[in-house]
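User: For my dataset I need records formatted as: sequence, then C-alpha cells, nothing else. Please produce one.
Assistant:
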Amino acid sequence: MEIFGIPHQAFLGQLLLGLVNGAFYAMLSLGLAVIFGLLGVVNFAHGALYMLGAFAAWFMLDKLGINYWFALILAPLAVGVLGVVVERLFLKRLYKLDPLYGLLLTFGLALIIEGVFRELFGASGQSYPVPELLQGATDLGFMTLPNYRAWVVFASVVVCMGTWYLIERTRLGAYLRAGTENAPLVQAFGINVPLMVMLTYGAGAALAALAGVLAAPIIQVSPLMGSNLIIVVFAVVVIGGMGSIMGSILTGLGLGVIEGLTRVFYPEASGIVVFVIMVIVLMFRPAGLFGKEA
C-alpha cells in the first residue's frame, strides 16, 4: 500500500518521528512564549538552559548515581533556580528598556555558558542511557516505535497542556497576565508582582531544562545541543505568534510533523522547510498564526 506514491511504512514512520521532534519544538517554544508573553524578554539563552538540563541529568547519573526519574524533577528545579538568579541579577534592570537589550543580554549569557561547557567537556557528546522502564520498542505494524520516544511525546503534550491551562484558565495565570500589563494596579491589591515575574522566568527556564532531560537519552549530551536547536525553535515561536502559548504548542507539534514528512517527499528541503514556512507566514500574517495583530 502506498500513500502519495510512498510506501505507507515509510510515510507513517516519518510521521511519528516528526511528532517526536515536534514534541521538543513544542516544549522549547512553550518556554520562550511564556517568557516573552509575560515578561517581554526575547530569551536567547533558552538553548543554553535546555543544554544545562541535559547536562544536569547526565551529571546526576554519572557522578551522583541519581536516576532518570529523579533527574526529571531535580534538573528542572536546579536550572529554574539558576533562571531566578539570572532574572534578579540582570533581567529585572531591563524591563523598561527596548526588548533588544534583553535579547543581547541573554545571547551573551548563552555564549558564556556554552563556552564554559565546551572548555570543561569539549565538543564531543556524553551518552545518557534510556531508563530501564522505557527500554524496548512496540511493534505498530507499519514500524517499530521505541518506547522512550512514545514517552517523550506523551510527557511533552501533558506538560504543554498543563502549562497552557495554568496560564490561561486559573486565577494565578490571570494575576500573571494582569501583573505584566498593569503592575501598579495589581500591586495595589497586595500581589507581589516582582516575585511573580521572577518565578515566571524561573519556570520558563525549568521548562527548557525539562526538555533537555527528555532529550538526553535520544541525542548526545553536548555543549552544542542547544545552539543547534534554538534557531529552529525561534522560527516556531515566530510562526505561532510571539507570546501565544497555544500557538507555540500547536505550531511546534505541527512543524515537527511537516519536517518529518518533508524527509519522505523531498529530503533535501527538510532542513529549511520550517524557515520557508516562517517567511510565508510573515508575508501574510506578521503577528504569526495565533498572535494578536498590533
